[in-house]
Amino acid sequence: xxxxxxxxxxxxxxxxxxxxxxxxxxxxxxxxxxxxxxxxxxxxxxxxxxxxxxxxxxxxxxxxxxxxxxxxxxxxxxxxxxxxxxxxxxxxxxxxxxxxxxxxxxxxxxxxxxxxxxxxxxxxxxxxxxxxxxxxxxxxxxxxxxxxxxxxxxxxxxxxxxxxxxxxxxxxxxxxxxxxxxxxxxxxxxxxxxx
Amino acid sequence: xxxxxxxxxxxxxxxxxxxxxxxxxxxxxxxxxxxxxxxxxxxxxxxxxxxxxxxxxxxxxxxxxxxxxxxxxxxxxxxxxxxxxxxxxxxxxxxxxxxxxxxxxxxxxxxxxxxxxxxxxxxxxxxxxxxxxxxxxxxxxxxxxxxxxxxxxxxxxxxxxxxxxxxxxxxxxxxxxxxxxxxxxxxxxxxxxxx
Lengths: 195, 195
What we know:
The structure is a homodimer of 195-residue chains. Chain A has 195 residues and is mainly α. The first copy, chain A, is built from eleven helices and two strands; from the N terminus they run αββαααααααααα.
């Protein structure tokens, strides 16, 4: 087999491991913890269906690819809970190292392409990146909301902490942030999320 | 909330259930059974990385969306093992019913759009559909090959049966079928797949 195809297949088999990286979010119906691959799949379909709510026109194929690959680094770096201040401190360094190892399995042109896409997502500057991040916030919010906010209760987070992250959804979609705000207010009123 | 957005969110929450539909394929490293959402995520990234091997030029964004949504009907219809003749008989009917129920949760324009995409995949006629099907065959083959063909052994399938399905990969990608053939021959030689 030609070296190029062998490298592509090596990468493809490597990322299978993302299915074993479990997140703090639980599936709807008070299900088990969700893994990164499922989360990325869900985000990609959401991006496609909700693109009309993006603040700016987006290249939706690019958003979808960002959603699909944004957590591959967690194969080495692990999942960092969005409301874990200690984990967040070392996250960047762990993920940079993982990025180099994992994407280097690919042929050089595809390595550069996927790293550029990952970096664009991380840099949070383009319209596509902001909308993909909105999905990254909104997807677990919908699941957690369907489970009466169980993930917030488990980690004893406050509404201020949750708003600190979720408010950035407005950078990608003002409308979806309004919905986020409405959902959070309902859960605060019901006592699912402490003030 | 406007009715349109409510319908979109209802559909998004409904498809979370795809993460509970488990397949016969096992994750690499002799892992647990794979679920449909993970399988779809993996296929979508594979399609993007392997598009240069498609027989014809494909609209890769369309292929990716086909990969992402092609198993949503299994939320109701369940997974039908590729080498289960009894299950395959009733598969079409079960999946048609599921298609109507699940996609009808969406606003009408998006319902039509996703059903058209699903039907295009099922009809196996366009270049995009053929390449998406090649991914649907090649993805579990790579996992099963990495696990010494354990899934074939578990179901006691013969190489004729496996070739019956896998040969259709050539309709989407002659090169990836050559690789498929090479992998199958290696497993036959090692006794992982019976003649």
